[in-house]
Amino acid sequence: MGIHDRDYYRERSGFFESWGRQKATVWLIAITCAVFFAQCITGDPARSPLVTHGAYEPRAVLEGEVWRLFTPMFLHAGLFHLFFNMLILYWTGTRMEEMYGRGEFLAFYLIAGIFAQCFYLLSWMAGIAPATPSIGASGAVVALMVLYAFHFPRQQVLLFFVIPMPIWLLVVLYVILDTLGAFGARGQGIAYFVHLGGVLFGVLYYLTGLNFGKLFGPISGTRNRKSERIRLRVVPASSRNADTPTPNGAVVESSNRPTDNESGKPKTAPDEQLEKRVDQLLAKVSELGQESLTPEEREILFRASEIYKKRRK
User: Fold this and answer.
1) Which residues, including other chains, have CB under 8 Å from residue 277's CB and lie 6 or more apart?
2) Do 285 and 3 meet the contact criterion of CB atoms below 8 Å apart?
């Protein structure tokens, strides 16, 4: 979790300001659900005017309606279609947003959706994909799931909410089934090539170490945090019993003194190195803002916070 996103760092604010501080994942879900509600107002959501003018349609794209490469990810054919996409988006998106930051995560999601539709378009132009119109966030959602699987391959998930398996295996099965479907071995009515485009984007993003913040310049959140000069550091519980503001206004996160075991042996060198590294990263956040952290640095802070949580128990 980003330092500036923690509860103790937030000032009391009104309803709208609080909503403005929500994660990008929550906003994406809220916007997508609002669009689906607008689809339902006209009757059958799959036949809504929004779908008529916003669904992916290859011939229309080539005629200049390029927005159809972007708008499909916010349109859905039915409630179950929406529910499963938003469920996976929330489950994977919240964790990836913590690691990559709001701006990078949002760029990843939107560009993944466009990339998946472009992959579908190119496959049609190559003569291997049908010209069937499509809607849904599946391309971007699948890309997120692939990225999550690269970072946490052993994470257990429930297939059909019943069968436990590591997420890497789920992704492999997903790719196999979509590949079979793309070449006619499964039922039609599903944009298999969009799914495969999302898989390809997730793989390329992870393996190339692509960072849109470095490519296009810093992608900031909703606030300019470079101006916030509050210093933070981690101190043991022997100094403080709770997360407490110091006299100079800085917020200090407390934790139990790290030990090798419950017998109270002093912390080891790796623990000291971890704490030193965390202090360096917190100083960087204070000086340059949360958006200055690399994905690897965000992961260090996230894992450190998990360790401190366990030590407080």
Assistant:
1) 300, 304
2) yes
**Residues designated as active site:** 138, 195
Q: Report mean pLDDT in 10-residue bins for the chain, 313 residues.
A: 46 45 86 95 90 92 93 93 94 91 93 95 91 92 96 87 88 92 76 94 93 68 37 45 42 42 50 80 72 78 78 63
- Inter-residue contact 302 to 101 (CB < 8 Å): no
- Structure token digits, residue 253: 């996160």
Rounded Cα gap, residues 216 and 190, in angstroms: 34
Whose tokens are 């043991």? That residue is 236
Q: How many CB atoms lie within 10 A of CB 121?
A: 22
Torsion of Cα atoms, 245 then 248 then 254 then 260, to 10°: 180
How many whole angstroms separate alpha carbon 159 and alpha carbon 174?
11
If phi > 0 it is left, if psi is from -120 to 50 it is alpha, else beta; for residue 49 that is alpha
SS (H, E, C) 17-59: HHHHCCCHHHHHHHHHHHHHHHHHHCCCHHHCHHHHHHCECHH
Question: 3-class DSSP state for residue 63?
Answer: coil
Kindly report the pTM of this predicted structure: 0.66
Is 22 in contact with 265 (CB distance < 8 Å)?
A: no
Element (H, E) at 254: strand 251-255
